């Protein structure tokens, strides 16, 4: 009777081993049959109750069953291992005769690309490209630009103060002051660069962003000259006519001052998070240079006039490429940057 039980157990275990669909199922069969508390171990515990003749017979059958089942387990394990290896080779197959891919070439950041385009455009118009420090004196950042001591822009909510009369520049306008002192009239210049403001970050505002300052000082300069520059700039960047509006604006360093807005190219006008549901994006504050600013630059406003504008370079990039969140531009996310 024990002999029949052992034969049936071995046959059933072999069938389960051959039909196991995964290494986990195979291991479960091994534990149940060949484990220390498995079925064969239970039969082995009862060997002491058998007669010497039966013990020899059952012991022989028990060893044979154990060896056969272990051999079947090993064969099935090898088959699973080979199948897994083949699947991996199929998935990771590489043609070693092909040239190595090499390093992935980099691309220009969209801000850098647009800045270089603008520099090329204005250079072709005889405009000098100037640069200035990002840590500025209070005089160059405010006083020389006719910004009074009680102006809100000097408050901590807008300006990052560093102490000793120094701050992170809040605009690229200080380069105007340096340009007038260095070059004198007549003067045509632009100054692209990074600026800093203590603002709450959202889809259209960052504490660190980019501007492009422009200035022209000559005799008999008018608003018509300024509008020509603005239209030339926008048509070059967007490659087509864009809808703009010019409205009065107050800036201490220009008089009269204007806000040149562009119709939002993200939503086309109905309103979105970038334009704050207004359909318009402030892009080009501009105006005729205030006489006090010319005097601070060592230029006689009775003899010379000029216009100035401050282009939101970061916002221009967003409009050009349809970027709906300003935070993408400085995120360092390669998935975003590889699109350009």
Task: Map the helices and strands.
Elements: H1 2-19, H2 23-34, H3 39-45, H4 52-91, H5 110-124, E1 128-129, E2 135-137, H6 138-141, E3 161-163, E4 166-168, H7 174-183, E5 187-196, E6 208-218, H8 223-238, E7 244-248, E8 254-263, E9 280-289, H9 291-296, E10 305-312, H10 313-321, H11 334-337
Parallel strand pairs: 1-5
Antiparallel strand pairs: 2-4, 3-4, 5-6, 6-10, 7-8, 8-9, 9-10
Helix pairs in contact: 1-2, 1-4, 2-4, 5-10
Notable traits:
2 domains, rod-shaped, Methane Monooxygenase Hydroxylase, Chain G, domain 1, single chain, seven-stranded mixed β-sheet, 19% strand, alpha+beta, 11 helices, BirA Bifunctional Protein, domain 2, three-stranded antiparallel β-sheet, 340 residues
- Give the oligomeric state: single chain
Give the number of helices.
11
pLDDT below 50 for ≥5 consecutive residues: which ranges?
Answer: none
- Mean pLDDT over all positions: 84
| Number of structural units classed as domains | 2
N-to-C span: 80 Å
CATH A-level architecture of the largest domain: 2-Layer Sandwich
Q: What amount of the residues lies in strands?
A: 15-25%
Quick one: CATH class of the largest domain? Alpha Beta
Broad shape: rod-shaped
Rg: 39 Å
CATH topology of the largest domain: BirA Bifunctional Protein, domain 2
- Percent helix: 40-55%
- How are the strands of the biggest sheet laid out side by side? 1-5-6-10-9-8-7
- Global structural class: alpha+beta
Largest sheet at a glance? 7 strands, mixed
Q: Please give the number of β-strands.
A: 10
The CATH superfamily of the largest domain appears as Bira Bifunctional Protein, Domain 2
Order of helices and strands: HHHHHEEHEEHEEHEEEHEHH
């Amino acid at each position: 009777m024990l002999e029949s039980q052992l034969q049936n157990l071995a046959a059933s275990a072999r069938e389960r081993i051959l039909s196991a669909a995964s290494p986990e199922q195979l291991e479960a069969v091994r534990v149940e049959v060949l484990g220390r508390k498995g079925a064969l171990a239970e039969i082995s515990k009862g060997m002491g109750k058998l007669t010497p003749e039966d013990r020899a017979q059952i012991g022989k059958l028990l060893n044979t069953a154990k060896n056969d089942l272990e051999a079947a387990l090993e064969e099935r394990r090898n088959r699973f291992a080979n199948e897994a290896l083949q699947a991996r080779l199929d998935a990771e197959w590489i043609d070693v005769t092909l040239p190595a891919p090499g390093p992935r070439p980099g691309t220009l950041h969209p801000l850098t690309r647009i800045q270089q385009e603008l520099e090329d455009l204005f250079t072709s118009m005889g405009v000098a490209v100037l640069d200035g420090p990002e840590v500025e004196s209070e005089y160059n950042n405010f006083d020389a630009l006719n910004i009074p001591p009680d102006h809100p822009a000097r408050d901590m909510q807008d300006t990052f103060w560093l102490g000793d009369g120094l701050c992170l520049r809040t605009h690229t306008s200080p380069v105007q002051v340096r340009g007038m002192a260095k070059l004198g009239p007549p003067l045509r210049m632009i100054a692209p660069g990074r600026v800093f403001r203590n603002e709450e970050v959202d889809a259209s505002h960052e504490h660190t962003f980019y501007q492009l300052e422009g200035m022209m000082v000559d005799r008999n300069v008018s608003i018509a000259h300024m509008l020509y520059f603005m239209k030339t700039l926008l048509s070059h960047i967007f490659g087509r006519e864009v809808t703009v509006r010019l409205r009065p604006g107050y800036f201490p360093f220009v008089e009269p001052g204007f806000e040149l807005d562009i119709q939002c190219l993200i939503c086309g006008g109905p309103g979105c998070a970038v334009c704050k549901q207004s359909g318009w994006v402030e892009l080009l504050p501009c105006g005729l240079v205030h006489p006090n600013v010319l005097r601070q630059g060592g230029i006689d406003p009775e003899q010379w006039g000029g216009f100035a504008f401050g282009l939101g370079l970061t916002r221009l990039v967003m409009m050009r490429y349809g970027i709906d969140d300003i935070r993408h531009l400085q995120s360092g996310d390669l998935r975003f940057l590889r699109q350009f």
